[in-house]
Design brief:
16 helices, six-stranded mixed β-sheet
Length: 472
């Protein structure tokens, strides 16, 4: 019998997990508070997302929207010269993604999930997850003034920063002290990118008190934003009569950004949002999985939010399907999800922590990336048809594109805890409050022998036991 699954939230994490589950025969009800399309920040998409969109069967629908194709990024960071990461040059022509309008992008993904058989309920206010002892067994929710219950074999909490489980139920979400940032942004009609930027790539530009993004969208629209610590933001805010005035002044303070938007004009209003990074103590438990921002959130410096959402949604779906099929125990599936998701978050956390030490020099970023990639970049390059020696920035590119995480998920041993996570603490003198290096769930399951499979269907594979050879 097919499992009954309730998914909370219709963003990329919820849409991907629910669509993958429904495609495999699960009965899925998705509860979304808002009515799509709705505005959301986070336009820059990692290349890994394209592979996951392929897996869910939505590529043609996404490509039909005419989004700006993205082939990498360019950083102007600290005292370094411009630093270009060109994905096709490193990995081949198929490694690219898009810069998207999230209201439209998220709507396409959610409608695709519905087309796969997911029952999508808009305007559903989730009150709580229901438990029998420590196992999640359903969700209580309200719509049109009526309280309802949906029983479930499994619950996927993709409720975003609202955090139905981590923030409201368990209250085990921990902020990272260093990344207590605020983003302020808006949109220009017309603009430009720095020379040598890969096609459609994002520009990331550091400043003394934070960093700027410039993202090309379709229709000659540019998303421009500034991220700074909340203390600096709050100290500056009284200088200006409005958010818009503050935003325009901050843009004018960057000679580089001013030049890039000189050929355009600002449209609309400036928006502000807190970008406080955090992670929950655990990303799953009996009968439930956290995906996307419900589990963890990271400063948007490396544009990893949608990658982490889709990646964790895929892990949750695979874990549920293989648990229900009896291919792995639930303890093993929980270890698989926790290990891979926490490793992915830990990698990105470590890289962002390194970048906030702005003047270390990019060789230190390369060294950190090579440690975090665990020497897998040359093998990843060979898998994708390359035969040239791995360039110095290859590991950094593979991590920030999300390809290292995808490779880890499908590789035996890829779930091993990242001992290099401790480097994040070294880079910021132990002040970041980063994710724990250990992924011990307190049980006997060894997730290092498990790996993601996508054919003939999504699930978890198990490495064969190797009998020890007796000495002669």
């Amino acid at each position: 019998m097919a499992p009954d699954v309730v998914v909370i939230g219709g963003g990329p994490a919820g849409a991907i997990s629910s669509a993958l589950l429904a495609r495999a025969g699960a009965r899925v009800r998705l509860l979304e508070r808002d009515f799509f399309p709705r505005y959301h920040i986070g336009e820059s998409i990692s290349s890994s997302c394209r592979a996951i969109i392929d897996l869910v069967g939505a590529r043609e629908k996404i490509e039909a929207r005419g989004y700006q194709v993205k082939e990498g990024l360019l950083l102007r960071w600290g005292a370094e010269r411009d630093w270009t990461i060109n994905w096709p040059d490193l990995f081949g022509d198929q490694v690219r993604s898009w810069q998207v309008e999230r209201a439209d992008f998220d709507d396409v993904l959610l409608k695709h999930a519905a087309a796969q058989g997911v029952e999508v309920v808009h305007g559903a206010q989730v009150k709580k997850v229901l438990f029998d002892d420590d196992r999640a067994v359903g969700v209580e929710w309200a719509r049109d003034g009526r309280l309802r219950e949906s029983p479930a074999d499994f619950v996927v909490d993709a409720s975003g920063r609202a955090g139905v489980l981590s923030s409201q139920h368990f209250r085990n979400r921990r902020p990272h002290d260093v990344f207590r940032n605020v983003a302020i942004w808006g949109y220009y009609r017309g603009g430009a990118l720095l020379p040598n930027t890969p096609r459609g790539g994002i520009n990331v530009i550091s400043s003394l008190n934070g960093w700027y993004w410039v993202i090309p969208l379709s229709g000659d629209v540019y998303s421009v934003g500034f991220v700074t610590h909340q203390d600096h933001f709050l100290a500056r805010r009284p200088e200006f009569p409005s958010q818009k005035a503050m935003f325009l002044a901050l843009v004018a303070e960057s000679e580089t950004v001013t030049e890039l938007v000189a050929g355009g004009h600002f449209e609309g209003e400036a928006r502000v949002e807190r970008d406080f990074s955090y992670s929950a103590d655990s990303f799953c438990g009996p009968g439930y999985f956290l995906a996307g921002d419900s589990a963890c959130f990271l400063d948007p410096l490396l544009s990893t939010g949608v990658h982490l959402a889709m990646y964790s949604g895929m892990l949750a779906a695979a874990s549920i399907l293989s648990t229900h099929a009896g291919e792995v125990t639930e303890s093993e599936a929980l270890g698989f999800h926790e290990s891979h998701y926490r490793n992915a978050y830990g990698r990105m956390f470590s890289m962002v922590a390194g970048f906030y030490e702005q003047y270390r020099g990019r060789n230190s970023y390369f060294w950190l990336a090579q440690r975090l990639a665990r020497g897998q970049y040359p093998e990843l390059m060979r898998k994708r048809g390359g035969d040239a020696p791995a360039p110095a920035d290859g590991a950094f590119a593979s991590i920030t594109s999300g390809l290292t995480d995808l490779d880890d998920a499908t590789r035996i041993g890829g779930a091993a805890p990242l001992d290099a996570m401790v480097l994040a603490g070294e880079l910021v003198a132990g002040k970041a409050g980063g994710p724990a290096a250990s992924t011990d769930l307190g049980g006997p399951a060894d997730a290092t022998r498990l790996y993601l499979v996508t054919e003939p269907r999504l699930g978890i594979g198990r490495a064969a036991e190797v009998e020890p050879v007796a000495p002669r």
